[in-house]
Amino acid sequence: MKLRIVASIAVAAALTLGATGCSMISPQATTIDYSASDGVNIPSSGPVDVRNAMIVADEDGTAGNFLAAIVNDTDEAQTLVFGFGDQVETLRVPARDRISLGVDGDEPILFEGIDTKPGGTLSMSFQSGDGEGVATEVPVLDGTLPYYTEYVPLVD
Length: 156
Description:
The protein is of the alpha+beta class. The chain is built from 1 helix and 8 strands; from the N terminus they run αββββββββ. It has one helix at 2-25, and strands spanning 48-57, 63-72, 78-84, 87-93, 97-101, 109-112, 121-128, 134-141. Strands 1, 2, 3, 4, 5, 6, 7 and 8 form an 8-stranded mixed beta sheet that branches.
C-alpha cells in the first residue's frame, strides 16, 4: 500500500515538473526588448532617446530620408549629433519634448550618397549630451508600403 502511494506521488511530481519545467529555464518573450516597428531603437547614446530610426531610400539607394522620434526626457535642452561617414547632422531637442522627423510637421532629414539599397542597413552613429555615442545599423526601406511612399526622396 505504501509503495502504491509513493509511486502515485512520484508520478504526480514528474507530471507537474514535466508540464511546467520548460518555463523554469526558458526566458519569457515579454521580457525581451525589441523594436516593434520597421525602424530600430538606438541603444543609449546619452540623455536623448532615438526611437524607430529608419532611412526611406530611392530605388538605387543613393539618397534616403532619415525618419525617427527623438525624445528628450531631461529638464534641459539637449543636442543630438548623428550621421554616417562625413555627413553629420545636429538637432537641438527642447527639454521634456520630442521631435518626430517625418511626422507632425517635422521634416525628415535627407542623406545623399548613402550607397545602400532598400533592404540593407546603413551604419550610423548617434551621440547626445556627454554620452560616448554609439554606432548602429539602421534599416533602409523603400516606398513599397503606402505609408512610406511620401518619404522616398526625389533626387535628380
